[in-house]
Every structure is written in C-alpha cells, then in structure tokens.
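Example record for the data management plan.
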Amino acid sequence: SEDVQQIAMRLAAKQGRLAALLNTYRDDESKAPALRSMEQAANTLRLDKDYANSRLLLEFVFQRKLERQSLAGADYLALAEARLATDDMPGAMDLLHRLTLQGDLYDNLDSAAALLEKTGHVAEALPLLKKLVVGRPWSEADRLRLGRAELTLKDANANATLTSVGKDAQAVYAVRAAATSPLQRSE
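Corresponding structural encoding:
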C-alpha cells in the first residue's frame, strides 16, 4: 500500500539507505511507488528537517516527470526549495530560470521571486522582481515587493520605489500605506 511504501522510504532515509532504494526503483520501475507517494514522503522528510533525503526523493520524482514530460511549475519550485535547503544556490537558480522559460512568464517570475523571498534570498529575488515590475507596471503589489527588497538590500532606489507606490493615487490604500511605513521608519 502507499502508506507502507512511504514508511519504507522514510525508514530507508533514517538508515542511510535511501539512495540504494532509489537505485532499485531505477532498475525496476515496477517496484517504485507512485510519484505522489514519493512527493508525500519527501514532504514528511522536509518537515522532519531531513533536507538531504527530501531532496533525493524530489530529484528522483523530477527526473521521472521530466522523462514522462509531465512537469508542472510546482515541481520546479519544490525541487528548487529543496536545493536551497541543502545550500545549492546555483542548482536552485538554474531550476528557477528554467521555470521562467515555460508557461506564463510573469506568473512564473512571481512564483520564483516569492520562493527566494520566503527563503531569505532577497538579493537573488531582486532581478526577478525588477523583470516583474517591468512586465506588469500596473501592479502596485509588485512595485511594493520590489521596494521592500531594495530596502532590505539597502539599494539606493528603495526610497524612490516606495515613494512612487505611496503616492500612486490608483493604488489601493493598504498598499500605499504599506509602502510609506518603511519610509517613516528610515527617517
């Protein structure tokens, strides 16, 4: 059953045998559990802070989905997050770049930047946020995120970006207020 297979994967991870178990799945695909079960096991390992084994499972799932041509944006984001958790910034950035080359560019830029912001990689998110603002100049929320990122990085453009959002009469009041709040603290 799926539960038994998930327990087997988690047990193999705890015993340091997950790589060997995945090799048996590579050798005989009929022994492999459903990809969804593997993703759930990877998530459980991530919650247990076993980032390396979580990443092993997600790398396996990603490769299988790539072979089947069934990758979705969430697959790129999950593996990128796993790579960030194991301090593989170049690998994570490669995946996020590949994500932005498919589907809706701006939705994918938004998702990639959000992941980087969430994981504390604001400097890496900044170029994505700039592209997002250029592509969606009407989005005051995107401009606010850009301004906050610039402020975090002590970028010289931060005050101008946040001031422009704060003064935008078309922007929603909550966004305008959020844009001026950091400016008041910096004075």
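Summary line stored alongside the record: DSSP finds eleven helices and no strands in the chain.
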